[in-house]
Specification:
- This protein has 12 helices and 10 strands.
- By secondary structure, it is an alpha/beta fold.
- The protein has 2 domains: about 160 residues, D-Maltodextrin-Binding Protein, domain 2 (3-Layer(aba) Sandwich), CATH 3.40.190.10; about 140 residues, D-Maltodextrin-Binding Protein, domain 2 (3-Layer(aba) Sandwich), CATH 3.40.190.
- Strands 1, 2, 3, 4, 5, 6, 7, 8, 9 and 10 form a 10-stranded mixed β-sheet that branches.
- Helix 5 crosses helix 8, helix 6 packs parallel to helix 7 and helix 9 crosses helix 12.
- The longest helix is centred in the N-terminal third of the chain and has 20 residues.
- The radius of gyration is 23 Å and the shape is globular.
- The termini are far apart.
- About 5% of the residues have low confidence.
Length: about 325
């Protein structure tokens, strides 16, 4: 009996020591996008970086309907970190556009990742040289109520063009590409990382131009919508378009709610931007991963920073 008691005491002590020594588990769900997109492989890479670099971390990536769906998942407590475009995040926190009367004030910024470029595509013989040249034309502005449609409307407004000045066509990327090739429309807006498959499809059979968004229009746009940044589509990105094209972009970003622990957010950013983390992201998606850099982490930030992110960037001198 005495031996049994001693054995039980030893077992209890060992269990106690093991419990004290085991790191506390932190479960984090990362809402990304579809499996065929850019968000999902990057989310998977981030989860791996955090699991390997942070003791007790248990992060996992989930497939979703991307930006708008992700905001709602975070609001409902079904995700902890979300991939989202910075313009969609801006609408959500301010109750605008797609989130009119449905503001989500607890949405906080974690990091800007890489640009999603606003592209205005026309056929080379259209005669359209700038945004103002859209007046009187049939213009595809994206699906009704979409983020692309908001981008198109805002860019045109900065150039003094309203929907009353054009023949509005609410078309998806693929629909716009098909109609542009067939000559049913004169121009098409789209927002995506370049090169974009729909544009490559048009350029494979037609001579196209990418209409520039000049500095004056960009400045006016940014004065109203601070989430836009300026960017350049390099010559050679699309067949037959050999010159660089100036335009604007929104940004893919990470967002969280204030409920996520500040120390956890700080540690996640630290491990993500470490050399090994950057290499992992580039391996997951060569183009987008290579753009995820600490120096770009607040360029186009459309949300108040999470306290953990604020602390990390302060220490990093950014």
């Amino acid at each position: 009996m005495k031996k049994l008691s001693i054995a039980l005491i030893i077992i209890a002590l060992v269990a106690s020591i093991m419990a004290c020594g085991a790191p506390k588990q932190t479960f984090v769900s990362v809402a990304s996008g579809g499996t065929g997109g850019t968000y999902y492989p990057l989310a998977g890479a981030m989860a791996t970086i955090w699991n390997e670099g942070i003791k007790g971390m248990n992060a996992s990536a989930q497939t979703t309907g991307a930006s708008v769906a992700n905001v709602n998942l975070l609001r409902e407590g079904k995700a902890d970190i979300i991939f989202v475009q910075n313009d969609i995040a801006y609408y959500a926190v301010n109750g605008l556009e797609l989130f009119k009367d449905k503001a989500y004030s607890d949405l906080k910024g974690m990091a800007i990742l890489y640009p999603e470029t606003c592209q205005l595509i026309v056929l080379e013989d259209s005669g359209i040289k700038d945004v103002a040249g859209l007046k009187g034309k049939k213009v595809a502005v994206g699906a009704a109520g979409s983020g692309v449609e908001a981008n198109a409307r805002q860019i045109m407004a900065a150039a003094g063009v309203t929907y009353a000045d054009i023949q509005v066509q609410y078309l998806s990327f693929n629909e716009a590409a098909s109609n542009l090739k067939d000559g049913n429309i004169d121009a098409a807006f789209l927002t995506a990382g370049y090169p974009t498959a729909a544009v490559q499809d048009i350029a494979s059979t037609k001579k196209i131009s990418v209409v520039p968004i000049d500095s004056a229009v960009a400045a006016k746009l940014q004065s109203t919508y601070p989430f836009y940044t300026t960017t350049t589509i390099p010559g050679g990105t699309y067949k037959g378009v050999d010159s660089n094209t100036t335009t604007v972009a929104v940004q893919a970003m990470l967002a969280v709610s204030s409920k996520l622990d500040a120390a956890t957010v700080e540690k996640m950013l630290q491990t993500m931007y470490a050399t090994s983390g950057s290499e992992r992201l580039t391996a997951a998606h060569a183009k987008a991963g290579a753009m995820i850099k600490l120096e770009n982490a607040q360029a186009g930030m459309s949300l108040p920073l999470h306290p953990g992110a604020e602390k990390f960037y302060g220490k990093a001198g950014k």
